[in-house]
Amino acid sequence: MHHSIQKLDDGLTLIELSGRLDVAGSAAVELPVSSACGGARNVIVDMSGVEFLASIGIRLLLSGAKLVKRRGGLLVLVAPHEQVAQTIEMSGLAGVLPMADDMAQAHEMIDGAAA
């Protein structure tokens, strides 16, 4: 699992993930993702490189979303592969882990939540 974390000019934090969010992948990114979410108001997670999402990966994303929500913000997943999106939808967590097709839509979702 590879990751990068950037603070964007507009006050957002962008987390880019690629690989498998399984037991090993989640363990590899848990600390940096949790730290980034704990210090951010709004987070966009680019999921376009995530090819598999296990329940432990969902737990990691939920934990991040809860940290951001406590600060009055929103965590949005961007461009998940169809299988990853289906996993989130079938788990009943699409309302807690909102998904956007692209960065523009993610920005709109965050702006709409702030209004």
Commentary on this structure:
By secondary structure, this protein is an alpha/beta fold. It has a single domain, classed as STAS domain (Transcription Regulator spoIIAA, 2-Layer Sandwich). Helix content is 46%, strand content 28%. It is built from 4 helices and 5 strands; from the N terminus they run ββαβαβαβα. The protein has helices at residues 23-38, 55-70, 82-90, 103-114, and strands at residues 2-7, 13-21, 43-53, 75-78, 99-100. Strand 3 (43-53), helix 2 (55-70) and strand 4 (75-78) form a beta-alpha-beta unit. The protein starts with a strand and ends with a helix. The mean pLDDT is 94.
Write the layout of secondary structure elements.
Elements (H helix, E strand, L loop, with lengths): L1 E6 L5 E9 L1 H16 L4 E11 L1 H16 L4 E4 L3 H9 L8 E2 L2 H12 L1
Parallel strand pairs: 2-3, 3-4, 4-5
Antiparallel strand pairs: 1-2
Helix pairs in contact: 1-2
Give the strand order, joined by hyphens, for the main sheet. Answer: 1-2-3-4-5
The SSE order reads EEHEHEHEH
Overall number of strands:
5
The span between the termini is: 35 Å
Query: Mind telling me which CATH architecture this is?
Result: 2-Layer Sandwich
Shape: globular
What is the count of distinct domains?
1
CATH class: Alpha Beta
Largest sheet: 5 strands, mixed
Please identify the oligomeric state. single chain
Tell me what portion of residues adopts beta-strand conformation.
Answer: 25-35%
Number of helices: 4
Low-confidence stretches: none
**Please, what is the average pLDDT?**
94
CATH superfamily caption: STAS domain
